[in-house]
Amino acid sequence: MRQIKIYDTTLRDGSQMEGISFSVEDKLKLTRRLDELGVHYIEGGWPGSNPKDAEYFERMKNIPLKNAKLAAFGSTRRAYASVEEDLNLRMLIEAGTPVITLVGKSWDMQVHVVLGCSLEENLAMIKDSIAFCKSYGKEVFFDAEHFFDGYKNNPDYAMRCIHAAIEAGADAVVLCDTNGGRMPEEIAQAVEKVVEETRAIAATRPFDVGIHTHNDSELAVANTLIAVQKGATQVQGTINGYGERIGNANLCSIIANLELKYGYHTIGREKVKELTSVSRYFAEVANMAHDERLPYVGAKAFTHKAGLHVNAVAKSAETYEHLPPELVGNTRRVTISELGGRSNVLMKMAQFGLEAHTSSEQVRQVLEEVKRLEKEGFQFEDAEASFELLVLRAQPDYEPPFRLLDFMVVSESRNGGEFLSEATVKIKVGNEVMHTAADGDGPVNALDRAMRKALAPFYPELDPVHLTDYKVRVLDNESGTAATVRVWIQSTDGKSTWNTVGSSTNIIEASWLALADSLEYPLRSISKRRLR
Amino acid sequence: MRQIKIYDTTLRDGSQMEGISFSVEDKLKLTRRLDELGVHYIEGGWPGSNPKDAEYFERMKNIPLKNAKLAAFGSTRRAYASVEEDLNLRMLIEAGTPVITLVGKSWDMQVHVVLGCSLEENLAMIKDSIAFCKSYGKEVFFDAEHFFDGYKNNPDYAMRCIHAAIEAGADAVVLCDTNGGRMPEEIAQAVEKVVEETRAIAATRPFDVGIHTHNDSELAVANTLIAVQKGATQVQGTINGYGERIGNANLCSIIANLELKYGYHTIGREKVKELTSVSRYFAEVANMAHDERLPYVGAKAFTHKAGLHVNAVAKSAETYEHLPPELVGNTRRVTISELGGRSNVLMKMAQFGLEAHTSSEQVRQVLEEVKRLEKEGFQFEDAEASFELLVLRAQPDYEPPFRLLDFMVVSESRNGGEFLSEATVKIKVGNEVMHTAADGDGPVNALDRAMRKALAPFYPELDPVHLTDYKVRVLDNESGTAATVRVWIQSTDGKSTWNTVGSSTNIIEASWLALADSLEYPLRSISKRRLR
């Protein structure tokens, strides 16, 4: 079982993504999580590029890693200057990491146009910079930027850059498809060549050929896999494929494919089970929604909708799952939808651990209620909190934490002026009636605020609860503004999130229903206790 | 230059995606757009599975296609039953399409576990069903479900299924990686085998080997490309990779890679330039956010963040772009908006025949107004009526047919009773003021009806005008119910249709803006005449 080393660059190349801005604290947290996951190298940042990265490396000096080696990233020295005077190289050494990764040019066009120096000078820059870092006892990797474009246009020069790095003592040369534009055959051919030409070196000392790809042609994962098949032993990428433009190669998919499909050893099968939680954790720290459609680790990766599929999955999971979701720490999810039937509802109830408390008469009731509501436009496939409430309400002893008596929402504009929305709400909790009013950025926002005002005195635990997403879909489009509208709401209390749904021809009613569920859901277990 | 045929299944397999629910009207629009794009086959749906698809095929009988052939999808006959009595096959024939695509099993495990019949019976099901459809003069494709899993586990039986299809007269066999779990090498080997074994048939009559992949291992595009390299000549996929779980193979990336990287002929290089707008159009009709990280066609595909990159791009675009964005109709992102560029606005105005009446100062005004509105959440991509009004309003002599003075909408429910919505509207036409009230199925419907009541005495030509579609999208999801909302409305007078847009943090205001445009648009030319 060949060992493939995983080099994570989420904290450096991944953070180039629009919308991502890690604080130093974030980076420290993520470093620890990557170390626990068992990746071999963690590229923490570019100490010469900004003070935040410099601070990160300073603080990392006091944080020992269990598995991974920390790498600092920087570029080869400037043209026609000495390494000793190069501030960038100086800061790389001072970062105090065991590994230094140096990026340099390997495409002749780039040397001319971007560096504006001679091809020979670029070779000297590669050699000098690597030798300089080696003289401090560092493990040094050479990231050959645009290697595959260079190899396509001037293979001789691209290979000379590789040889220059090796002669200077590089412990790995990493072949980069910087623009993400090369096809798998081109990657295969070039990697094969480099592996072949460096075989003699690799026999005498530890040496890796690495691969670093981008997803601009939707081939980052495939190009990484083919490079490994052709002999690459170090893989660079990012968690969730974060990165500039379309992103870097997604390590979650790569690790899963290498371990579970090809049988290579990367972080080990036990650690592969953490991929889903690591993926979610990174999304959370990056303050981005976790992409449901991420292969292997996304919420939809093992989700079944069509009735045909669900029946088949019930017979044999292999039928519509390429592997058991547990292997990557994910779970099977069956959506409740118009396309499914009784088997869907039962599987769903089992998932919530509700089936034990539910008689078969109640199951029948739930099923009928689901059918009725779906006909009215509800859709529970992505609104599990509303579904769970529906099941709870079918149980005879369920006592709702509040009941709605009256409400009114007014939206108006006078003399062409500002739009205003105001809501009044009358609710009953136990035997008490609350009547409140609030305004808001729109009718639903006003309603939300009036509801919270009414519930706050009874349920202080609702304080941290807030809406994080609100979606509206018009169902039977043909009927225009008299059409049925489905509203979907996501809420959080800071720890967990839940989704609810409402549907009506009246958008305010649909919003109200989803809103009420979103507030009832976190109270579902405490309400009984309180009110008895 | 080898011709690869593109088979789009967005309307069938793509619509299995959670969150997608196309109306019949949506499907007709998308069919027309796919036909214009020049794909070779459009799989419209599964007529036997639901009444909506049956209606779609009924209506398609009167809509001629210029380039594409329409395909109806269904499964092989049921086990131990006759084709004549098979309702599913009957409905496929009645769909009246030139092409029928039949899905059948080719994995022995599936035959045993899911169908519960003998391996021989499955072969008979394949043969009978294809022969039945062929007897009606149809072009028949056989989708070999789970082919690659079957080929891995029992290659002999998988190949027997292929041969059964061919013997029965199938015009193509499409090899499906249904679970999306197979690696490129496995795809390559199996496709090679099928191409080799069917070479003799392909020499005597038109015959294609097709490829149909899913993205569960993040390899759908790579697996499609390698199949083509190994001789597949039909490619199945969906726009934007829509589909169940992680999705189908993304045709946008596949077409771009095949045409621009490999030099195959698919829809032709001129049409490839439409990929970005097609991708956006499909997202819009699916009422989903356009994924910014879609390769080639996403907003971030040619966006640069890192200072290093931006400098280099300024020196030479090739430095950090794998190809010129114009080739796929995308743009390097410098401005914030889609229409933002002056040339875009001019192109759009020329399209409406408005540029002759517009001074360069007005063009500048329009451009600024577009930028301002797009920043507020408007999008004119699929709302050309609103854009045309915006240009008209920049002309000094434009007199709006009506002006809004006041309005108010109330939505309420008392004692847990029915939800009611009522609107009052005060508008000015010429020097007259109208004050009206109406109720409706929701606040927007009530507003719509009050507006019509007010305008009817002045503009009887509005009588046939009505809304046919109403969509709502929440833009910055993070802010919950206080988020910006975009409302899109489609209207018709029975002869032509037009689309309008409104945006606001208040859903009622956003609806009002789109609604007002939808009523002003058909009056734009007559209003002056009337009021003078």
From TrEMBL, chains A, B:
Pfam families from the xrefs? HCS_D2, HMGL-like, LeuA_dimer
Q: Which UniProt keywords apply?
A: Amino-acid biosynthesis, Branched-chain amino acid biosynthesis, Isoleucine biosynthesis, Transferase
> Does this UniProt record's set of keywords contain Amino-acid biosynthesis?
yes
Q: Which domain of life is it from?
A: Bacteria
- Keyword Methyltransferase present in the record's keywords: the answer is no
What's the Enzyme Commission number for this chain? 2.3.3.21
Enzyme class per UniProt: transferase
The record's Gene Ontology biological-process terms are: isoleucine biosynthetic process; L-leucine biosynthetic process
Q: Which SUPFAM superfamilies match?
A: 2-isopropylmalate synthase LeuA, allosteric (dimerisation) domain, Aldolase
Q: Which Gene3D superfamilies does this UniProt record tie to the protein?
A: 1.10.238.260, 3.30.160.270, Aldolase class I
InterPro entries named in the record: 2-isopropylmalate_synth_dimer (IPR013709), AIPM/Hcit_synth_CS (IPR002034), Aldolase_TIM (IPR013785), Citramal_synthase (IPR005675), LeuA/HCS_post-cat (IPR054691), LeuA_allosteric_dom_sf (IPR036230), PYR_CT (IPR000891)
In the record, the note on similarity to other proteins reads: Belongs to the alpha-IPM synthase/homocitrate synthase family.
Quote the protein name from its UniProt record: Citramalate synthase
